[in-house]
What does this fold into?
Amino acid sequence: VSEIKARTKVATKYRGYRSLMNLMTAVTTDIPTPQFMMRQINAADLYLKEPYETTDHDAACLVHDYIMAYRPGGVPDDYNGVNLQMDAVEKQHYDDLRADFRALFGSKRDERLNPCESFYTQDSHDIEDADGNKTTSVALAVEAFFAANDMEARGDFGTDADHIAVECGFLAFSTEKIMRALVHFDEDEVAKWQGLVSTFLGEHTLNFAPTYFDNVVTLAQTDYYRGMALLGKAAFADMASELGVGPSDPAPASFTIAG
It folds into this structure.
């Protein structure tokens, strides 16, 4: 019984990581995510499994769609069948929230707030294929990591593989695997996915995510997005501690935006 309780406690922690990474995926991009971000490939026949979906995604998309559909100047009292009954102050709040979203993650994003790992990597360089499509060496390294482990990040929306949303999508996908393996006492699967998460965090996400979220905190004009960034940074710190891993090539201090 004590072993089951201990295992359940650890599984619950990974469930929390999964939920937080899903939330970060939905918050940090202006396209519907994360169910389209990660899919697993059966290497034997290249059969593409169903896209990864969770109830967390449904909740995140409800918030995302609400913000994206909202028109400045007022929110309808009945949105998507839900009676909102907002007063003038609340409607102004959503004006501010939408403007903040655009400035942080959308079309009016501050150029210093780049959401891609390659921006913060000193030895990253641009690469152009035969068709003239441009990418970076870091994005290709992330794609290669996924491919080596029978996964891929879909590029249907023009989002690079080293985008913070895609990397968080992979971490949500992977921590879900760990959670389920723990519940089913599958030690090999636990070890496999913990190893992948540790490697990916150390070689990629931890190198830039803390700096990125620090910058979001600095530039955010609303408590909502400032709080989301603090939550994201704390989630990465906790995962790093849980797995005993640190950044292999952290972003230089010069990328931190002064408050």
Q: What stands out?
A: The beta strands are 38-42, 47-48, 78-79, 82-83, 126-128, 134-136, 151-153. The CA atoms of residues 213 and 229 lie 5 Å apart. Residues 32-37, 41-57, 70-83 have pLDDT under 50 and may be disordered.
